[in-house]
C-alpha cells in the first residue's frame, strides 16, 4: 500500500478523506440500498466512480447513474473492473478474501466499505450493536432512550438510512446508533465508542467458513476501541462472556440470571448499576428475550441518558415491525408476524413469549445451521408445525428425531408455497389458537428480505375471509 493510503488510515478528519478521494478511480461493489447514497456522495467529492453489480440490469437507477457520469460494470464479470481502481468499497455480501479484491489490493488499491469509513470519520458518539439475535430491537431501544433524553440521534447500519453521505451534517455532540452484521464487521478496523454484542450462536454458516470466523467477525465491533471504550456483553451466553478479557475498555455485563451483572433482573425488577428501572409487569414487549434486550440497552446508555428516560421508553415502547407483531384475529385465531426470526434461537425466543402452544410456520433459505436445538426446545411448545421452503425436510428430520426421543406426536405439514403454509396453518387452527410466522431461516429462497416476507404474510392474513 502506498504512503498516501497509509497516511489516510491514520487520519480521522473527514476533510482529509475529501482531499484523498478527489479524482481517484473508485469501485463501489454492490448497488444496493446502502451504497446508492455512497455513490452520489463520492461523485460530489470528485471521485471517478465505477458501479459494480452482478445484476445485469439495475432498472431506473441505471439511467440515473449514467446521468451522473458513473461507469457501469454489470453482470457475470462485474468484478473485473475493481483491479483498475485506486479505492474499492466492498458490499457486505462480498467476502474480503475474494480473489478480485485481493488482486486489487496487491496492486495498491485501498479496500474498504461504507460502514468502515463512516466509523472512521464520524465525529459523534457512536453506539454499535451486533449479535445473532435481538440486534434490531436493541438498536431501536438504545436510540429511543437517547431521543427521550433530548439527544439528537441518527440510526443506521442494517436499519434506518445509510449514514456515510451525512457525515458533514453529523455534529460532535450528536449520537449515532448503528446495527452491524458479521458481514459488515469481517474486515472492519474501527470500533464504536459503545459496542454491544447481544448474544452469539451458530448463524450465517453458509457464508462464513466456520463458527470461529463468525465469532471473530463479531469481535471487531470492540477490538479496535481504546481504553475509553465500553463493551456490553451477555453474561448468560458462554461465547460472549468468554470475550470479556479481550476488551481494551470497560466491560458491562447484562444478565437475567446473575444479580452481580451491571444490568440484571432481580426478582421481577430490571436493575442497572443498582438503580431500579421498572418491573417485568410494566414492560409492553412480550417475552423474556425482550427483557434481555432492555437490560442490554440500559447497560449501553447508562451514563449517557437518565434513569427517567429509560423508564419512559419501557412504559411506551411496544416493539418493532416483524418482531412478534400482532396482525389480526380471525374467528378467534390470532396471527403474529415474527418474520425477523431468521435463526433457530430467535424462533425459540419467540415460542417462549407465548403462554400456550402455537401453530408455527417455519422454514426458508438454508444458512447451513442445525435445527436440533429448535426441535428440542420447540417440540413441547408447538401444537402444529407447518414447514415450507428449502429447509422443510431438514427441519422435519430434526423434529422427528426429537419426537422419537421424547415419545411425542406433533402434527407436521409440508407446504408447497408461502400462501399454502398460511392457509394450511389456518385450516388446522381452532378458536383460541395462535398462528405465528417465525421461520428460523432467512427468506432468500422466496423473498428479497425478511421485511418483504413479513409484509406478504400480513397481506395474506388480512385477506383471509
TrEMBL record:
EC number annotated for this UniProt entry:
6.3.2.9
Q: Which residues form the Mur ligase C-terminal domain?
A: 322-441
Q: Which residues form the signal peptide?
A: none
Q: Could you tell me the keywords of this UniProt record?
A: ATP-binding, Cell cycle, Cell division, Cell shape, Cell wall biogenesis/degradation, Cytoplasm, Ligase, Nucleotide-binding, Peptidoglycan synthesis
- Copy the pathway line from the protein's UniProt record: Cell wall biogenesis; peptidoglycan biosynthesis
State the coiled-coil residue ranges: none
Biological process terms in GO annotation = cell division; cell wall organization; peptidoglycan biosynthetic process; regulation of cell shape
Task: List the GO molecular function terms.
Answer: ATP binding; UDP-N-acetylmuramoylalanine-D-glutamate ligase activity
Q: Where in the cell is it found?
A: Cytoplasm
* Alphabetized Gene3D superfamilies for the sequence: Mur ligase, C-terminal domain, Mur-like, catalytic domain, NAD(P)-binding Rossmann-like Domain
This enzyme catalyses: UDP-N-acetyl-alpha-D-muramoyl-L-alanine + D-glutamate + ATP = UDP-N-acetyl-alpha-D-muramoyl-L-alanyl-D-glutamate + ADP + phosphate + H(+)
Question: Which superkingdom?
Answer: Bacteria
- Look at the named UniProt entry and state the broad enzyme category this protein falls under: ligase
In which residues is ATP bound?
131-137
**Domain Mur ligase central intervals:** 129-301
HAMAP family the UniProt entry points to? MurD
Record family assignment? Belongs to the MurCDEF family.
PANTHER family annotated for this entry?
A: UDP-N-ACETYLMURAMOYLALANINE--D-GLUTAMATE LIGASE (PTHR43692)
Explain the purpose of this protein: Cell wall formation. Catalyzes the addition of glutamate to the nucleotide precursor UDP-N-acetylmuramoyl-L-alanine (UMA).
Q: What is this protein called?
A: UDP-N-acetylmuramoylalanine--D-glutamate ligase
Amino acid at each position: 500500500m502506498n504512503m498516501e493510503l497509509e497516511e489516510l488510515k491514520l487520519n480521522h478528519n473527514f476533510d482529509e478523506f475529501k482531499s484523498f478521494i478527489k479524482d481517484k478511480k473508485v469501485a463501489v461493489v454492490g448497488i444496493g440500498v446502502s451504497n446508492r447514497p455512497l455513490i452520489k456522495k463520492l461523485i460530489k467529492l470528485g471521485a471517478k466512480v465505477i458501479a459494480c453489480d452482478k445484476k445485469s440490469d439495475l432498472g431506473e437507477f441505471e439511467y440515473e447513474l449514467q446521468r451522473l457520469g458513473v461507469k457501469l460494470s454489470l453482470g457475470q464479470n462485474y468484478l473485473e473492473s475493481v483491479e483498475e481502481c485506486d479505492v474499492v468499497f466492498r458490499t457486505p455480501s462480498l467476502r474480503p478474501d475474494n480473489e478480485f479484491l485481493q488482486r486489487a489490493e496487491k496492486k495498491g488499491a485501498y479496500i474498504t466499505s461504507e460502514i468502515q469509513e463512516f466509523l472512521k470519520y464520524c465525529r459523534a458518539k457512536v453506539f454499535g450493536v451486533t449479535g445473532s439475535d435481538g440486534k434490531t430491537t436493541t438498536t431501536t431501544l438504545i436510540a429511543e432512550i437517547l431521543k427521550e433524553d433530548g439527544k439528537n440521534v441518527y440510526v443506521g447500519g442494517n436499519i434506518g438510512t445509510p449514514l456515510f453521505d451525512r457525515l458533514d451534517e453529523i455534529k460532535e455532540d450528536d449520537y449515532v446508533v448503528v446495527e452491524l452484521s458479521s458481514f459488515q464487521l469481517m474486515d472492519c478496523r474501527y470500533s464504536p465508542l459503545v459496542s454491544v454484542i447481544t448474544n452469539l450462536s451458530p448463524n450465517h454458516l453458509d457464508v462464513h467458513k466456520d463458527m470461529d470466523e463468525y465469532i471473530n467477525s463479531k469481535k471487531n465491533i470492540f477490538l479496535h476501541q481504546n481504553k475509553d471504550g465500553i463493551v456490553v456483553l451477555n453474561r448468560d451466553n458462554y461465547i460472549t462472556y468468554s470475550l470479556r478479557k479481550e476488551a481494551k475498555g470497560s466491560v458491562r455485563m447484562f444478565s437475567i440470571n446473575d444479580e452481580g451483572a451491571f444490568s440484571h433482573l432481580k426478582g421481577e425488577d430490571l436493575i442497572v448499576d443498582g438503580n431500579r428501572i421498572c418491573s417485568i409487569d410494566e414492560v409492553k414487549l412480550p417475552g423474556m428475550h425482550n427483557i434481555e434486550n432492555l437490560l442490554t440497552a440500559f447497560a449501553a446508555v447508562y451514563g449517557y441518558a437518565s434513569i427517567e428516560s429509560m423508564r419512559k421508553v419501557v412504559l411506551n415502547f411496544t416493539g418493532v415491525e416483524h418482531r412478534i407483531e400482532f396482525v389480526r384475529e380471525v374467528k378467534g385465531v390470532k396471527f403474529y408476524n415474527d418474520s425477523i426470526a431468521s435463526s433457530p434461537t430467535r424462533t425459540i425466543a419467540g415460542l417462549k413469549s407465548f403462554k400456550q402452544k402455537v401453530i408455527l410456520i417455519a422454514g426458508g433459505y438454508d444458512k447451513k445451521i442445525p435445527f436440533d436445538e429448535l426441535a428440542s426446545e420447540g417440540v413441547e411448545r408447538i401444537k402444529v408445525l407447518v414447514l415450507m421452503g428449502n429447509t422443510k425436510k431438514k427441519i422435519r428430520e430434526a423434529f422427528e428425531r426429537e419426537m422419537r426421543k421424547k415419545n411425542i406426536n406433533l402434527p407436521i405439514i409440508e407446504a408447497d408455497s408461502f400462501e399454502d403454509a398460511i392457509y394450511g396453518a389456518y385450516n388446522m387452527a381452532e378458536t383460541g389458537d395462535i398462528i405465528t410466522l417465525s421461520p428460523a431461516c432467512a427468506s432468500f429462497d422466496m423473498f428479497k428480505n425478511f421485511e418483504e416476507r413479513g409484509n406478504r404474510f400480513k397481506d395474506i392474513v388480512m385477506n383471509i375471509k
